[in-house]
TrEMBL record:
GO terms for biological process: negative regulation of transcription elongation by RNA polymerase II. One of its GO terms (cellular component) is NELF complex. InterPro entries: COBRA1. Residues 556-584 are annotated as: Disordered. This is NELFB factor. It comes from Pterocles burchelli.
Amino acid sequence: AGPGQAAMYAGLQELGVANGEDLKETLTNCTEPLKAIEQFQTENGVLLPSLQSALPFLDLHGTPRLEFHQSVFDELREKLLERISAIALEGKVEERYKKLEDLLEKSFSLVKMPSIQPVVMCVMKHLPKVPEKKLKLVMADKDLYKACAVEVKRQIWQDNQALFGDEVSPLLKQYILEKENILFSNDISVLHNFFSPSPKTRRQGEVVQKLTQMIGKNVKLYDMVLQFLRTLFLRTRNVHYCTLRAELLMSLHDLEISEICTVDPCHKFTWCLDACIREKFVDNKRARELQGFLDGVKKGQEQVLGDLSMILCDPFAINTLALSTIRHLQDLVGQDTLPRESPDLLLLLRMLSLGQGAWDMIDSQVFKEPKMEAELITKFLPMLMSFVVDDHTFSVDQKLPSDEKGQIPYPSTIPEAFTKFLQENRIACEIGLYYILHITKQRNKNAFLRLLPALVETFSDLAFSDIFLHLLTGNLTLLGDEFALEEFCTSLFDGFFLTACSRKENVHRHVLRLLLHLHHKVAPAKLESLQKALEPTKQSGEAVKELYNQLTEKLELRKPSPAEATETPSMELPLPTVPTPASR
């Protein structure tokens, strides 16, 4: 018998059941082999008197004994598995688990026998506490560990953080990669962007579902995952870990796992914020609720602010808070009200500030809300409101009959204070960027070109972050026709994008994404100079080279050679959000 055969019979001898080795030995030491085989069959066959006469009948039909025994065995195993699942649900708790523990004790020595292994695994799966010794044996054997149910693995993981970390780590890497793939996706659209999927849809993602299943109802494992996320967020500053923190909690909420939801102090806050994210707006009722949670943080429990700040640092939360802030500012213009007189606006700023301060708070372990700078409210926001007023004034002026028109040119300069705020104040910068996204979405070219120079230098280079550039490139598709104008392209590319391309690979990628989408709108001379400026260097990564090659191919297709002139129109790729003109 080879090693494979030995595994088939693993553990039988300990139970006093004859195996292949015993038969081999009997045959080696006997004088009448046929008699010995018959005796072995009688001693080890199915001991049912009524079978003795039926077996020869099977022989007549040419059914091998192995086939018969195998089918009986499979049938019995199925019955046993059903019975184990039933025992796990019946009678008093202590009694049912006592039965299962006895069964495990009897069967565990056969755990390596492939045909019996499912039975042993099933018993362990139904035991809320598998004996420590058995867990250690499973953990020490790679194949057994792989074969055991997640219910058993949870019991192993909760006392082995390193092993659990090894299981979780590839999932977290996959999650971050998926987020980055969306941000750098070649599909640029104002309708479908990074923030389009609803929270419920996002929670159905593979990684969140797998983690939810791995955690089950185990608070200890949930805490471990949160610890991993905090550590990784601190190490990388990657805000997608904050998204996962919120998604995981809400996924457990969807499954009504009260064992975890009731002990996570952020549960109700996250649940309320989740509803706001779904609507992409914080309404008054929910604003009061969220404020209640923040005001309700008691002395001695300030540490919960670290968790709340991480929930608020989730880009989906920041996006919702920033969009709500812009909407509030527009309303205030219409109401002739100053920002400092709006409690709702102040609450949004408070939450933005808490979210933006998450990394510093968790890093310093000083759990108190960041101080809001008065000038943000008294100077910066009124300045944004004055931009809104400038736009109103200009558009009203444009609509007047020509003899009444005042010759008011659109204001082209920006207050120095605006640029300074964007460089020095994180919250001002975030709101300023969202205001620029807002005017771009409104196709307000004048306002866009006026404020664009302020983006070259921003707080912590926020204007060159992936999320902002992803949204900006999407919104710029609405200004597609402007790309034919030299002045617009010079301001956008030379004045903004190209200032960072060489030092920031992600900016290089986003510009190429944009051009892949809008190249047919750009004036040919400008396109040529951009193609030169964007050529990858030796240091460029694969993604940049790949995008550049795609762009070059597209531009080659556009050059009509005499022979191809008739085919060219069919090669023009239709673009999802921008109607393309027929090729020239």
